[in-house]
Amino acid sequence: DDGAKTAWAALEARSPQVSESRYPFDVFAPAANSLDFAIISLSYHDIYWESERYKIPMTDPDAYLRGLYAGMKPGGIVGVIDHVGEGTDTRMIVDKYHRIDPAVVRADFERAGFRLVAESDMLANPTDNHEISVFDPSIRGKTDRFLMKFVKPR
User: Fold this and answer.
1) What is the pTM of this model?
2) pLDDT at 66 over 90
3) Strand partners, 124
């Protein structure tokens, strides 16, 4: 939205070393060792999502994270915020509810070589029913969320 664009332009003006990079899910290839920090906010689950309607191709989470790992500088930090989901069929859970099991996220990142260094439940909502889509008006903007901080080892 326009407010976000204005705020981002102001941030870039006062901090020229900060930049925003966007990549298609299936072609994630930042320059090697170019990123100090990355945040994936309420969208990591979409790595598991495929939609013909929205032209979102199937993505290989391991390939995506290999690209992210290669792009991070040693000591670089990745923050992940996402909607809590439950279940063993990750692609089905994502397709139906747009949520992901935090254990899946942790396993994916650790398999890629990242280390989990911190977690927070500050965005937890224990009253959220994990079997409701995050877009349902009864819960939209109030979902049970997790935060994880990963680092690329030095």
Assistant:
1) 0.89
2) yes
3) none
